[in-house]
Amino acid sequence: MTESPYKLFTVIIYSENSVGLLNQVSNIFTRRCLNIEDVTASLSSAPGVHKLTITTESDRPTMEKVVGQLEKIVEVIKVGLYTDDDIIYQEIALYKVPTMELLQSHELETIIRSHGARILEMTPEYTIIEKTGHRWEIEALFDCLKRYDIRQFVRSGRVCVTNSPVEHIDLFLEKQRQRQKQSEQ
Amino acid sequence: MSQEHAIKQTTIDKTTSITGAEALLRSLVAEGVDTVFGYPGGAILPVYNALYDFKDLRHILVRHEQGAMHAAQGYARATGRVGTVIVTSGPGAANCVTGLSDAMMDSTPIVLITGQVGARYLGSDAFQETDVVAVTQPITKWAYQVRRAADLPEAVAKAYYIASTGRPGPVVLDIAKDAQVGMVENYCHRHVNFIRSYNPEPETSPAAIAEAAQLINSASKPMIIAGGGVTGAGADALLQSLAEKAEIPVAATLMGMSAMPADHPLFMGMAGMHGAVGVNVATNRADVIIAIGMRFDDRVTGNTATYAPQAKIIHIDIDRSEFNKTVAVDVAIHGDAAKVLEALLPQVKPASHSDWLRLFAECHQAEDAEVYSRELRRSGSEPMTMGEVADKISATAPMGTIAVTDVGQNQMMTARYFRCSAPRSLITSGGLGTMGFGLPAAMGAAVGAPDRTVCYFGGDGGFQMTIQELGTIMQYNIPVKMIVFNNSFLGNVRQWQQLFFNGRFSQTPLLNPDFVAIAAAYNIAAERVADRADLQAAIERMLDHDGPYLLDIAIDPTDMVFPMTPAGRDVDFIMLTPDTTYSHD
Fold first, then answer.
1. CB contact under 8 A, A183 and B134
2. CATH assignment of B206-359?
């Protein structure tokens, strides 16, 4: 059996923090009918550089073309394309569950311990449980809490850092600083 | 940018405060702009008010904003400079969308300045408010909204830097009314030549160049395919040097057609759907293809699965995202075509490929017998063809004449039979195929290149899509020589209906007005040519006339563009007539 060419890719986009950037980025995925599974926007370690983390299912040749087109956006500094082997990643989820039902079951402590979750807030009406981990771990806790009537659930997009010993964005920015010096001369 | 157009440094007295509108105009001049194409309206009125007393800019008032865009494209393509357009918000900006998309496809440097409603009305569906940045982002290189007057000089500097560098393209500056009427304290224009997130001058890999040279030096059947990027980079002469040094035949995409003189012995004609037989046959026999500043468009490649099966492909392009986009390449050289060719030339060894060149000559013989003869050598009372008109004009017009085409059969016939003698002498809507492009683009080309003859070649369909620009041509006496191929049909669609839809001419016949009378109403000299016997003299009268001139030429509606590789077929599946295909033993 041949392996499906489709897999989950994580695209990390380093950019300036400009209005409308997300629109431009999502346009490039839309044109190729790629569904964005999740998206996270945050600061990066480089001063003033923002970081968008997007996951999508596709094949590598398509994703390489997407990366090429993303890098053409003027405000985009650098784009990296990764599979799960290249990155350390986490997601965070919150579950809002009725407190009474949880307490009645006497399983609360077991659930929290076995899933490595924690309780953020507990009121007589509801309990907020937080879980960070990979997608399947978050889903496992969801399945486990289902019987207690989950009132609200939310899962964040993926946050990730690469496992490369080299920080490509820093190298790129250093190169650009050299260019800037030359352009000023 | 040439010496004559060296950018003026504008540094105003530090104590000066000026309006944003005036700052915009001064910054345009500082960026080397001398001509703008535009149309006023509510949200851009402060700029037009400042323009009233501003003597350093020539404003060409068009008749429709789409015309302004295509005129600026023609201007940019004829001069190599950035074309500039000013329009109002809402409908004014929306009317520019086709031109932006066209300029994006054909890598034409344009700065479009759109007025926008006041900042406090943004997002409120105010009168003539369109979200221009959102609408234009997918079809521009950069789209940016300016809301404060103080930000204008830098935004203008960035706009011209982005539009003109790297792979050129259109830029939109959407300027809210507040920014136009607000004051700029201590106005000072500084050029931008660095943006952290943008690198238009990639370092070219010496290893890739060496690998390419090695492939070229060992090739026995090499071919160059030159695209619009050759002229964009000013690499026309270098292309010719490379071809001559190693005796490599040169084909061109539609966008690259004037990169090499048509009469050069190594120039083999156009590649792709209506290209030269020799070029398309050779593509699938070549052992090395050197693709320069072109993007393997589907009209060039036909079926990509069978394209150039024997060739190692060297692809030189300024835009890295073009590599392996539609066709897998063996050596990708990321860089400016001129810089790459300069580095490559010394490593290419002189060579001779006379056996290989014979293939082109043999194919040309067959093409001449089957296609050229029918198109160019009709006689007597047979109806005229577009090809023979383009051929005659080409023979009669002065060296360096610029042909600007519309889209369709007129475009293909002009590309095939008008022989370019200098760079930047075929201006056409390549990637987008915009009917209505030709007339305003010709107008812009004539404004930008007043020393060159500019001929517009269009069909009766496309001519009527932007016919209102006759008003602009009249107002500024722009000396465009207009050739309307009048067959009372949307000819190219008719051709596809004839070949692929059983001759069912759905919505392609046109009932046309009297174009000579229309020209007369605009005070433009014009004549109708219905007989072959009158053609040459009419062409001479047109070319000798001082000012615009229109020839309305009766064309055989059954005339079709051949050779033809139908869309999606193998590039060497070449129809010479509706019933015969070419086969090379």
1. no
2. 3.40.50.1220
Q: Which residue has the tokens 């016919």?
A: B467
Q: Indicate yes or no: CB of B145 within 8 angstroms of CB of A15.
A: no
Q: What is the CATH number of domain A7-86?
A: 3.30.70.260
Does the pLDDT value for residue B1 go beyond 70? no
Let me know if the fold of A7-86 is the same as that of A88-159: yes
- Residue B461 burial (CB count, 10 A): 27
> In the structure encoding, which two tokens stand for residue B376, read together?
């160019």
CA distance B533 to B295: 43
Q: How far apart are CA B329 and CA A132, in angstroms?
A: 44
Q: Distance (Å, rounded) from C-alpha B537 to C-alpha A175?
A: 63
Q: Which pLDDT tens digit goes with each residue over B205-244?
A: 999 999 999 999 999 999 999 999 999 999 999 999 999 9
Select from B326, B320, B248 the least CA-distant residue to B287. B248
CA distance B316 to B314: 7
* Distance from chain centroid for Cα A26: 15
Beta pairing partners, B251: B225, B269
CA distance A86 to chain B (A): 23
Alpha carbon of B140: minimum distance to chain A alpha carbons (Å): 10
**Contact criterion met (CB below 8 Å) for B536 and B395:** no
Are B273 and B249 within 8 A, CB to CB? Answer: no
pLDDT digits (tens, 9 = 90+) for A117-143: 999 999 999 999 999 999 999 999 999
Ranges of each domain in chain A:
7-86, 88-159
Interface probe for A, chosen from B146, B172, B198, B329 (most Cβ of A below 10 Å), is B198
B164 vs B380, which has greater pLDDT? B164
Q: Phi then psi for B271, rounded to 5 degrees? A: -95, 150
**Could you say which of 3.30.365.10, 3.30.70.1150, 3.90.1570.10, 3.20.19.10 is the CATH number of the domain covering A88-159?**
3.30.70.1150
Q: What number does CATH give the domain B384-554?
A: 3.40.50.970
pLDDT digits (tens, 9 = 90+) for B466-479: 999 999 999 999 99
**B193: closest CA of chain A, how far (Å):** 7
Answer yes or no: do A20 and B133 touch at CB < 8 A: yes
Q: Work out the pLDDT band at A107, boundaries 50, 70, 90.
A: confident
Q: Which residues of A touch B (CB under 8 A)?
A: 15-16, 19-20, 23-24, 27, 31, 61, 64-65, 68-69, 71-72, 74-77, 173, 176, 179-180, 183-184
E-strand ranges in B92-133 read 110-116
* Ordered alpha helix ranges (H), B190-235: 206-217, 228-232
Residue boundaries of the structural domains of chain B: 3-185, 206-359, 384-554
CATH 3.65.10.10 given to domain B3-185: no
- Contact status of B162 with chain A (Cβ, < 8 Å): yes
Q: How far apart are CA A70 and CA A119, in angstroms?
A: 40
Q: Which residue of A has its CA nearest to B158?
A: A74
User: A77, exposed or middle or buried, with CB in 10 Å at 0-12, 13-18, 19+?
Assistant: buried
Q: What is the ipTM of this complex?
A: 0.90
DSSP letter at A10 equals E
Which CB contacts under 8 angstroms, 24+ apart, belong to B238-242?
Answer: B238/B337, B238/B338, B238/B341, B238/B342, B238/B345, B239/B292, B239/B337, B239/B341, B240/B264, B241/B341, B241/B345, B242/B290, B242/B341, B242/B344, B242/B345, B242/B348
Q: What is the DSSP letter of A18?
A: -
Bridge partners, residue A41, by sequence: A52
**DSSP secondary structure letter of residue A137:** H
Say how far apart CA A4 and CA B514 lie, in whole Å. Answer: 62
CA distance B467 to B324: 40
